[in-house]
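Subject: sequence -> structure tokens, single chain

Hey, anyone have a minute? Need the predicted structure for the following. Not urgent.
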Amino acid sequence: MCGIAGFFSFDQKPLLKSNIQNMVLALKHRGPDDQNFWQNEDVQLGHSRLRVIDLSKEAGQPMCNEDQSLWLVFNGEIYNFQELRSFLIAKGHIFRSKGDSEVVLHLYEEMGSDCVKKIDGMFAFALWDQKRKEFFLAKDRSGKKPLYYYIDDHTFAFASEIKSFFNVSDVSIEIDEKKIFPFFLKGHTSAPDTLYKNIYSLEAGHLLKINSNGKKECKCYWDIIFPSQKKKISITQACQELRDIFSRAVQKRLISDVPLGAFLSGGIDSTIIISVMKKFLPALKTFSIGFEGDLNFDETHYANEAASYVGTDHHVFRITAQDLISHFDKIVWHYDGPFGDPSALPTMVVSSLAAKEVTVVLNGDGGDELFVGYERMVAAYYSSFIPSLVFNFGRNISQFFPQYHSHYSKLGKFWHFFKASGQSPLSSLNEWLAIFSPEELKNLLKINDECEQKNKLDLMTLPNTSILDQILYVNFKDYLQNDLNIKMDRASMAFGLETRSPFLDQELIEYVFTLPNRMKLNGLTTKYILKEAFKNYLPPSIRKRGKQGFGVPIAAWFKKDLKNFVGDFLLSQNPQYESYLNKKAVYKIVNEHFDEKQERSRQIWTLLMFERWLQKLPEWTSKSLHADGHFIPNRADRNCL
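Reply:
Had a minute. Here:
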């Protein structure tokens, strides 16, 4: 796992070494082991390396082919690289390293941009084709690895994180006011959008080509395919096939030249992962996070039980409200701005502690998206079968009862269910996820661009697909890509920790979407086929427990321990947010939470992140950076293949 960056001028201006040096320096946390750069008269490339497979210098980047006509920077892991390597050697290709990244160069020589279809893994890479004077960028199918690019009439640049663009000449950093509405609606922007003008996120399963004239081509190379008919298969056979596919997904993610471990929440997904891992790794370290003094959010007793059942070397950490204060600026910085998911905090803390023990961890991301793991999915699905008159009544009643309870409590979920009812399933799903409703945002935002209010995925038509498939698809394409993957990547890579997700395996994803929906949601039983297939891998208490979201007790913290912290940021006389938000509306939100009139913790978290971002952005874009690392010369003795 690494950080990658590159720079290109359409005006053929002289390239400043400080540009690529600053870009890579901003990514040093992603690859603390080595930083290298390369440039010619056309382009600059940079790479910050975390050594995971082939720790030698020969696997360093940027790397090139034999005649230096192709140059590559790569972030991620290719799980089928040994198979691809054998195929390419049989074709006459000669390899310099034993690592996985090098196969991209030779595969591109064989297949051009279609090479990406052969790669099984998590990746984001950029390849410069000197003969074509063209960049080729690609991102993995589920969007596990990040890749951003900046483009205007004069400049093209790309990087693993947006912060790489902050100190680069010819790159203008401006807030895109049109994206503030969707950010506050969901707590994140949806790829390709970001909160910055001219900066875009390459979408999952997409590739991008751009040449020296600025001609750009972006297209999808992979998407979920819904079969016209689901598999006709017995539950016994489906369980066996699922076990086999998932076992392969885990095993291929254990290839590493550095120590591995796993995150363990005590839920079904992570417990299944460590149970399968234990078959291949007799000595396994696992890591859990909890909350001091709050049993409603602390799952560590389940994690302890799972670790004991499987037999792992288990490490448990607990955090308090004070950890939010000490990590707050780190979160805003590593997420390149505001991020509306407060579970970024425990994810970052457990990553920092796990990184002291291992370099790679497996986690359970993707299991809920594939197997209907969220209660909101169940609610949205069954709401489509209940007469709208009933739900309209419930929705109207909910308007008269403020939300007093946490979003994660049973009463809070009940309130959200009726508030989101009486709409199409996808609209209900989006409202369940919403941090602010469109009506609330009309009062909150000074800038209210109606054209930005519609969720593109909500309007997406998926012909000949069931309601449940549409719900799964939207969660996979938006929530997974733009929330979960970003949360995990930034939190873990802040400490040079690589995370791998077996549930996001391509073979597994494509298989699960061929199964009958009743095998995923059976009555009110979620993850039915997963629980059946792996029932002997799970302790009885975990097999029977329901879904518990990865929540944080911020509702209580903001009313007590962190009340002054919230007030200092949001109730000050001259807040930075006043340029974009109505101060009276912010005051009302905060005071309603303080006075226990409404539960507003997620909204307050999002407002805190937004305010701190506005405070820190001028500092970020005016730093004086000291670059290190070294340039790779254009000579025969350099690191060419």
